[in-house]
Amino acid sequence: MTLLRQRMLHDMQIRNLAVNTQKTYLLQVASFARHFRRSPEVLGPEEIRAWIIHLTNERKLAPASVQLAVGSLRFLYRITLRRDWSDEDFPLPKRPVKLPVILSFEEVTRFFESIPSLKQRAILMTAYAAGLRVSEVVHLKVTDIDSQRMMIRVCQGKGRKDRYVMLSPRLLEVLRLYWHDAHPREWLFPGSIPGRPISRHAVGDACQLARERSGITKPVTPHSLRHAFATHLLETGADVRRIQLLMGHRSMATTARYLKLATSTVCATTSPFDLLPHPAPTPSQPPAPEYF
Predict the structure, then answer these.
(1) Active-site residue flag, 178
(2) Is 183 marked active-site?
(3) Does pLDDT of 178 surpass 80?
(4) Which residue, among 129, 272, 126, has the nearest Cα to 188 in the 3D structure?
(5) Once rounded to an integer, what is the mean pLDDT over residues 198-213?
(6) Comparing C-alpha atoms, which of 19, 17, 43 is closest to residue 30?
(7) Which of 110, 213, 223, 257 is catalytic?
(8) CA-wise closest residue to 133 among 225, 243, 240, 206
(9) What is the residue extent of each domain of the chain?
């Protein structure tokens, strides 16, 4: 490990960046250095610009992936190397705004009915009932289920933050049925490796199998259930601030995006056109017959 790599790693550890973020940033910077076959210390804004063009035109990376590469370089040069460079030295591609496909209440019901395994059903129902990320679901422990206060404790979620979410009485029934069948000890959903929780890939595979069995044509992932959770809460009248806390969003703007997805609420709004007075037809101009 070079001194620069070690110093960058220490800077990320001091700032308590997630372990996966540390690994990703180091990989991105290493790829940048290998491309130019020089240490990043001797490279500058022109090489950064050329790297972004290479990632976009040659490697055909999506804007989100390019933003990740730029973010790692921004940390290296601004934090570790303390270069006083402006935002213009780290140009970011604009990410297209795409709305996720949302499952209806009926589709969520059909999806759950298509899961044959009690364990898989409990996992995916927990993801929907509490609006959890898949990484949060798989790392739940038995002690995180507080049936006395009807809460679920989410330990070290995204951003390394703890939070509490509601424990649905109906979900509690499912979890109790699952617990009497599987008797998990530490991890609520243990994996095939002793002492380890179930993997995210295993949950994703279970989700894909259930989608195929249900006949739902929409794309369904564990994160789709989280999207459905927030959207269904909005459509049933929940407050946006409360949803922000339940979802663990740092910014209200992130939660506000779900306002675009709550179509049953948004599209049910009365158009101002319907509030205009209806002009009475004049005697010389009788109403036209309706054909449609």
Answers:
(1) no
(2) no
(3) yes
(4) 126
(5) 95
(6) 43
(7) 223
(8) 225
(9) 3-89, 105-266
Across-strand partners of 152? 145, 165
Catalytic residue chosen out of the listed positions 74, 139, 211, 226: 226
* Higher per-residue confidence, 20 vs 27: 27
Catalytic annotation present for 258: yes
Token duo for residue 163 = 């939070």
pLDDT value at residue 19: 87
Q: What is the CATH number of domain 3-89?
A: 1.10.150.130
**Cα angle value 46/51/57 (rounded, 5°):** 125
**Could you give the CA distance from residue 129 to residue 228 in angstroms, rounded to a whole number?**
10
Is residue 226 flagged as an active site residue? yes
Average pLDDT of span 35-50: 95
What's the rounded Cα separation, in Å, for the pair 148 and 162?
A: 19
Q: Are 145 and 224 in contact (CB under 8 A)?
A: no
- CB distance 161 to 120 below 8 Å: no
Contact 112, 211 (CB under 8 A): no
| Options 153, 158, 213, 257, the catalytic residue | 158
> Is there a common fold for 3-89 and 105-266?
no
227 as an active site residue: the answer is no
Tokens (6 digits) for 141: 């422990």
In the numeric block, which tokens belong to residue 115? Answer: 């899961």
Q: Under a CB-based contact definition with an 8 Å cutoff, are residues 61 and 55 in contact?
A: yes
Could you report the per-residue pLDDT of 257-292, keeping only the tens digit for each? 766 666 655 555 556 756 667 665 555 666 666 554
119 falls in which pLDDT band (50, 70, 90)?
very high
- Catalytic status, residue 60: no
CATH number of 105-266: 1.10.443.10
